[in-house]
């Protein structure tokens, strides 16, 4: 009987060691991502966003659209950081302007949801990565305004939109410059709107050749006007941006 107990103990030792190692492994950072909406009202999000988070070492969780502050705050409370994604134009009434022309296409349901989530995320102090519309959202939420229709409001509209590739200049001391170690980058361009009046307190991190803001940051937010999640598919160097964002979540996870 004594021998059988000894055999059982020996057999269980590898399992105990395995379980001990597993419990010591740090869980992946959980990242909330804002979603878009289809014409039928379904919540949608391109897989390039979730793929980029997974490849960088995070675990993506797509937020649904929300309509009240409590839901927004509960969602943000459950994640380690938030990514605000691309999408349609913002209603200029949000920042005190009338619609400029017929090119401005808005989604009031998503505007409300994104603003609720943005305010909850900003109040939480958790890291925020804001992409394209997401960057525009951050500028609005922090008190800035937008160019509603780049082709009619900026000097070089051909630089922006349609997937065009162009250079951006990186500001000294910016996060992008530190991550990539260069003073300019080639980026894609799919946007119809962009930062006009920068919100108080933000730091401009990059500009296009025509001066349009291509990236800005605060101590909490990194916002880019281009789409790094698309560029990751052909250039893995862009994973640096997502890994930097995930590293920032370490301070809020402790």
Description of the molecule:
The chain has helices at 2-24, 47-56, 69-77, 108-124, 133-141, 150-153, 175-180, 228-231, 239-253; strands at 30-33, 36-37, 43-44, 59-62, 81-84, 128-131, 146-147, 164-170, 184-189, 194-195, 203-207, 213-217, 221-224. With 254 residues, the protein is of the alpha/beta class. It has one domain: Class I glutamine amidotransferase (GATase) domain (Rossmann fold, 3-Layer(aba) Sandwich). The strands form three sheets. The chain has a nine-stranded mixed β-sheet with strand order 4-1-5-6-13-12-11-8-9, with helices on both faces. It has a two-stranded antiparallel sheet with strand order 2-3. A hairpin with a 5-residue loop joins strand 2 (36-37) and strand 3. The chain is globular, with a radius of gyration of 22 Å.
Give a brief description:
It is built from nine helices and 13 strands. With 254 residues, it is an alpha/beta fold. The longest helix is centred in the N-terminal third of the chain and has 23 residues, at 2-24.
Shape: globular
What is the CATH topology assignment? Answer: Rossmann fold
User: Strands of the largest sheet, in order across it?
Assistant: 4-1-5-6-13-12-11-8-9
Total domain count: 1
Q: What can be said about the biggest beta sheet?
A: 9 strands, mixed
Work out the oligomeric state of the chains in this entry: single chain
Count of runs of 4 or more consecutive helical residues: 9
State the distance separating the first and last CA atoms: 48 Å
Q: Residue ranges: pLDDT <50 for 5 or more in a row?
A: 1-23
Class inferred from helices and paired strands: alpha/beta
Q: For this structure, what is the CATH class?
A: Alpha Beta
| Rg calculated over all Cα atoms | 22 Å
Strand content: 15-25%
Could you name the CATH homologous superfamily?
Answer: Class I glutamine amidotransferase (GATase) domain
What's the pLDDT, averaged over the residues? 90
